[in-house]
Amino acid sequence: MGNETKRRLALAAAFLVVATAGSRILGLVREVIMVTYLGLGDAMGAFTVANKVPNLVRTLLADTALSAAFIPVFSGLLERERRREAWQVAFNVTVAATGVLGLICILGMIFAPQVARLVAPGPGFDDPAIAGLVVHLMRVMFPTVVILGIAGVLMGILNSYDHFTMPAVAPIVWNLIIIAVVVAFSKYGVKALAWGVLAGTAVEVLIQIPAVWKRRWRRKRRTTAPIPVYRSGGSEAEYIAAPLGMRSPWRMNLRHPGVRRVGVLLGPVIISLGIVNFNSLIGTVVASLISVPAPAIIERAFRLFQLPQGVFAIAIGTVLFPTLSRHAAAGRMEEFREDLSVGIRQILFVTLPFAALFVVLALPTVRLIYEHGAVRGDETALVGVASALTFYSVGMAFVSVNTLLNRAFYSIRQAWLPLVVGIANLALNAVLNLLLYKPLGVGGITLSTSLVSIFNFLALMFLLGPRIGGVGARRVASSVVRSIIALVPLMGAAYEVWWALDRALGRSLWAQIAAVVLAYAAGGVAYCLAAAAMRMREIQDLVGILRRRREPRETDLVIDTEVADQ
Question: pTM here?
Answer without folding.
Answer: 0.73
